[in-house]
Amino acid sequence: MLAAFLALFFYNLLFPGPQQLTPSEMNDAMANAMASATPRPPYSVGVYQIIQPSLVLIETETQGADGHSGNGLGSGVIISDAGDILTSLHVVIDAQEIELTFADGSQSSAEILVAQPENDIAVLRADQPPSIIYPAVLGNPNAMRVGDEAFTVGNPFGLYGSMSAGVISGFDRTFQPSDEKPRLEGLIQIDAAVNPGNSGGPLLNRYGQVVGIVVGIANPTEQEVFIGIGFAVPINVAASSAGLPPY
Amino acid sequence: MLAAFLALFFYNLLFPGPQQLTPSEMNDAMANAMASATPRPPYSVGVYQIIQPSLVLIETETQGADGHSGNGLGSGVIISDAGDILTSLHVVIDAQEIELTFADGSQSSAEILVAQPENDIAVLRADQPPSIIYPAVLGNPNAMRVGDEAFTVGNPFGLYGSMSAGVISGFDRTFQPSDEKPRLEGLIQIDAAVNPGNSGGPLLNRYGQVVGIVVGIANPTEQEVFIGIGFAVPINVAASSAGLPPY
Amino acid sequence: MLAAFLALFFYNLLFPGPQQLTPSEMNDAMANAMASATPRPPYSVGVYQIIQPSLVLIETETQGADGHSGNGLGSGVIISDAGDILTSLHVVIDAQEIELTFADGSQSSAEILVAQPENDIAVLRADQPPSIIYPAVLGNPNAMRVGDEAFTVGNPFGLYGSMSAGVISGFDRTFQPSDEKPRLEGLIQIDAAVNPGNSGGPLLNRYGQVVGIVVGIANPTEQEVFIGIGFAVPINVAASSAGLPPY
Questions:
Q1: With an 8 Å Cβ cutoff, are C44 and B148 in contact?
Q2: Which one is catalytic: A88, A108, A120, A162?
Q3: Is A17 exposed, middle or buried, given 0-12, 13-18 or 19+ CB atoms closer than 10 A?
Q4: Confidence (pTM)
Q5: Residue C247 pLDDT
Q6: What is the ipTM of this complex?
Q7: DSSP string spanning C113-159?
Q8: How far apart are CA B52 and CA A115, in angstroms?
Q9: Could you tell me if C29 and A27 are in contact, meaning their C-beta atoms sit under 8 angstroms apart?
Q10: How far is CA C40 from the centre of its chain?
Q11: Is residue C6's pLDDT more than 90?
Q12: Per-residue b/e over A20-45, b at no fewer than 16 CB within 10 Å?
């Protein structure tokens, strides 16, 4: 027996086996890991980095009935490998000239390829697309819920590439931009800030996918500024109404 | 000794013991688990799902001193099994008729059960409550801190069931809605968007508990639209002033 | 051999070794730990607690060219052990008297120590600093990205210590407060609500570090109220232009 004990002792010295964990060691390690986990950056940081190369600044020259010329401003987003640009129709409908500025700084004139007044959506084609085209990834608006993150990126008052963050406030909203324009239906409502110049820009989910195109804001006063309520056309409607396959 | 060694060898073959974990295996497993953890949806999604069945749309018909009739709009929230509805008094005080629409689509006329002008709070009783009543869960405003999530759900400009997200901006605010109305005190200030039609709707914490009733907004201009500052009566004040037991 | 077996049996009885974990036990424990992890409070709660002791309410008395006196309002933040206060120059430039209220409730008159009109930045020195001085920690604006959390704390319309939450909307913005004032350049744009009275207050990152000083808002109407776009001078510019070492 004694010999066996000794044998065992030496055996364990020779083959000590792997270092073993006790439950309390594991619990300590887990608590440490979870407490010291690096907090993630907010979704908005990634969303901006994902969408930024697909953003388009739209500037227009218009000529009123009285012969005076004016300028317009809006946003757009590249949605195909061909470089087609989705925007809001009211940004470009009265334009004599449409000038685009891409994320790489290059510029181009553009023409309206498709116009869908009933959704306030237009597709533009640049005369000189950027040398490298980064189409945005489209998401599924039907998978979104009230309260989901909602991000917009656009050019309010010409402030290029401005991001706003908020949530989805509601679905299936109706919005009449003005008396002479068609009523827009089935809109997504958001509380992320949008202002003139944001029109035509993308509405994005937490993954940086385009789920809508910004078309307007609610404001009962005469002033067209944000007061907490923005509207976007769901991207499936915008893309398919523009003759493009849905996502 | 040799025999003992052999005995040990066979013993371990016969009873191999459980598979053992090394610390580095555990660390790898933990890193994997934490990196692949599914990100949670934002609180706002759950908050909306929790409060939505308790929401009430309030429409009123008013008659001015000049005999002209008008319409009013507001929000309310069911807070008892009996179907009593908490709202803001100014939504209903001038109403000739109060018409409620519940989350199930049913409608009912209603009467003012309790009116507390000093807190701008009213309790309504529906003549025909919905067949199934989902009272909201009340939270503890005193447990909230500046910076905590603040959600509102209501009907701004009639946009039914609109959600806005923000934070608690401050406590114990004083607000004078207009010259002829009483000064409201002890209010919670929020930066979640609220507009006319939101009045009477619930202010919610991250758990979907009602911590306040929306009563107004600060705007130094004549226009009653949101500019970043909303006010709510703490729910303990609203509920107890309305003759209900505090949460 | 039998003796050895018995020896082994008793050895293990005597020295049973640590309780061992199987991988499936560990996985269960990890899943439990992650599912039951207490959700953190939002960053905004910590940010407010960190910055609150460094906040300053600034009230001014002004005298117009016509001899009428008026009152002004703004925010400031203590940024040095000496109690020096950073604010926006336009808050104090026309003041006959500057009255400060500190977080401990104490009050003091103050003088302008440094004025930098090209950045709309001023440094104030209190005649009677608070007995205990809590200088804010300065952060690095150059480490921030579009989409990062942006918090402001100030006194909009005199609502003391109001917090707003949002994101960084853009960098390197240019803003002309009014015709007679210098153009401000290199500004940080945010969508956190700021209004008159917020001017001079701190812009904060998720760690509660000051990354900017609020100087203005964009609003194309005559009304100086928030519509989704605020501007701040990066803290490195503000601090160094004020003769202070950068963070």
A1: yes
A2: A120
A3: exposed
A4: 0.90
A5: 46
A6: 0.88
A7: EEEEGGGTEEEEEESS--SS--PPPB--GGG--TTSEEEEEE-GGG-
A8: 37
A9: yes
A10: 19
A11: no
A12: ebeeeebeebbeebeeeeeeeebbbb
List the structure tokens of A171: 């679905």
Residue A135 near residue A79, CB atoms below 8 Å:
yes
Cα separations in angstroms, C53 against A53, C48, C102, C140, C217: 42, 9, 8, 21, 25
User: Does the annotation mark C75 as catalytic?
Assistant: no
The catalytic position among A44, A88, A90, A108 is A90
Would you tell me how many other CB atoms lie within 10 Å of the CB of residue A172?
11
Residue labelled with tokens 């507009």: B195
For C174, counting Cβ atoms within 10 Å of its Cβ (0-12 exposed, 13-18 middle, 19+ buried), the class is exposed
Residue A16 Cα, gap to closest chain C Cα (Å) = 12
CA–CA distances in Å: residue B176 to residues A230, B86, B218: 29, 21, 9
Neighboring chain A residues of C191 at a CB cutoff of 8 Å: 163-165, 192-193
Taking contacts as CB-CB distances below 8 angstroms, the residues of chain B near C46 are 147
- C151 vs B contacts (CB less than 8 Å): 147
* Chain C residues near any Cβ of chain B (below 8 Å): 1, 4-5, 7-8, 20-23, 26-27, 30-31, 34, 39, 41-49, 151, 156-157, 159-165, 192-196, 223, 225-227
pLDDT in tens, B7-52: 667 777 776 655 567 777 777 877 777 777 778 899 999 999 999 9
A116 forms beta bridges with: A121
Summary mean pLDDT of chain B? 91
**Closest partner CB to A11 (pick from B8, B26, B156):** B8
Report residue A50 as tokens: 């994902």
**Chain centroid offset of residue A72 CA:** 22
pLDDT at B187: 98
Residue C228's contacts (CB-CB under 8 Å, 6 or more residues apart) are A156, A164, A193, A194, A195, A225, A226, C191
Give tens-digit pLDDT for B169-220: 999 999 998 888 889 999 999 999 999 999 999 999 999 999 999 999 999 9
Hey, what are B85's tokens? 């509805």
**Are C203 and C150 within 8 A, CB to CB?**
yes
Task: Give the 3-state secondary structure of residue A46.
Answer: helix
